[in-house]
Amino acid sequence: MDTTLGLVKGTGLGLRRSLVDQILESPQPDINFFEIAPENWITMGGKFGKGFRAMTEQHDFVCHGLSLSIGSTDPLDEKFIREVKTFMKEHHIKLYSEHLSYCSKDGHLYDLMPIPFTSDAIMHVANRIKRVQDIIEQKIAIENVSYYAAPGQEMSELDFFNTVVQEADCDILLDINNIYVNSVNHQYDAETFLKAIPAERIAYAHIAGHHV
Q1: In which domain, by residue range, is 164 found?
Q2: Whole-angstrom Cα distance, residue 191 to residue 79?
Q3: Measured on CA atoms in the order 100, 90, 75, 40, is the torsion positive or negative?
């Protein structure tokens, strides 16, 4: 999917270690960029580290984080954020994105938990996103997530998501599958939700999860 912001264009693929040698040996012209979880690659050395370096010298990359826990009340892991910044500069990676959720509370929860759709949560999350952007010195993209409960809900998912993005002045990683899943589970119209997302902020989109 073409991006609105021009950081990456075309069709991307999530990179797994098992694919590195295959892609280096047989480049795929239909793949225009690759997405990685920085947590899995920052400390990578040896054969995989060399292969990854060869790939970043030839292809565009984006980082999609797993552990920042942007909605948590735990302190931000600023050491990790600075490691991501250094990693991105070293490999000329164009974008860092994360989930609009949290995965820690006095320790890792090993799941992406939903942030309450409240005014207080908006300001809390927006301020944390702004701090991340200050450290890495560029905008990040925030992904809409699937959720199975909405404790303490004061507003709709759509209003919550759009207001966070506006307050933080960040970009969007739009997950099409998550919109559909949430529309079924929480009984709203997926197309209406999609059309209400500010298109000018969409960095790129995740499209996966269905045969049709």
Answers
A1: 12-206
A2: 39
A3: positive
Check residue 1 and give its pLDDT. 43
Determine, yes or no, domain membership for 2.
no
Q: What does pLDDT average to over the chain?
A: 92
**Run of H or E including 119:** helix 119-136
Most confident of the following: 13-17, 102-106, 108-112, 126-130: 126-130
Contacting residues for 180 by C-beta, under 8 A, at least 6 apart: 190, 209, 210
* 78-91 helix and 46-58 helix, angle to the nearest 10 degrees: 60
CATH number, domain at 125? 3.20.20.150
In a domain, 5, yes or no: no
Q: Would you state the pLDDT for residue 4?
A: 53
Rounded to two decimals, the pTM is: 0.92
Distance CA 107, CA 36 (A): 24
CA geometry: angle at 174 spanning 74 and 144, to 5°? Answer: 35
Six-digit token string for 115 = 């942030």
Domains: count for the chain: 1
**Could you tell me the two tokens for 183?**
């529309």
Q: Is the pLDDT of residue 19 over 70?
A: yes
- Cα(173)–Cα(98) distance, rounded to whole angstroms? 8
Which residue has tokens 């809900």? Answer: 153
Pair 93, 85: CB distance under 8 Å: no
Question: Is residue 97 within 8 Å of residue 64, measured between CB atoms?
Answer: yes
